[in-house]
Amino acid sequence: MNTLMIIWHSRTLASKQAANCAYQGALHVQRELQQNHSILFIPAENVQAQQLLQANAYLFCAPENLGSLSGIMKEFFDRHYYTALGKIEGRPYSAIISAGTDGQGALTQLKRICTGWRLNEQIPSQIFSFRAETEKDILTLKTLTEQQQQIAWEMGATLYALISD
Hints:
Shape: globular
Mean pLDDT: 95
Number of strands: 7
Radius of gyration: 15 Å
Number of domains: 1
Structural class: alpha/beta
Strand content: 15-25%
């Protein structure tokens, strides 16, 4: 059975919301195509190596923290890097970075890791900026805009369709 794996980490709910919207998009396509491929919606800290190796496509949803990937998402990649190296090459992926202002540092870091794994970015990765510059704004729980929700939904739907061919 093919598997889409949506791996997320979130502190202010933005990345979890993005992952959930993608999950809903994947479920929609699953029903439309009347297929039963697996869709895993899993926090980065709970991913097991076997799950990662068995998945056919990946969506990584993470916040930017201090210009880099969040520590928990980075730890996920560190923990599984050598286990997956040479074993998941060519599989499609995309990413959504939730950022206070920029997001490029985190996205660049994630893309470098995925390049090392030889994954194939089938859908352009996205940065959802929340224009949070003050401590209060940074710590506030976030809500995705309708446009961001739609983008995430479409990313999940498209990745599911890719594993259904």
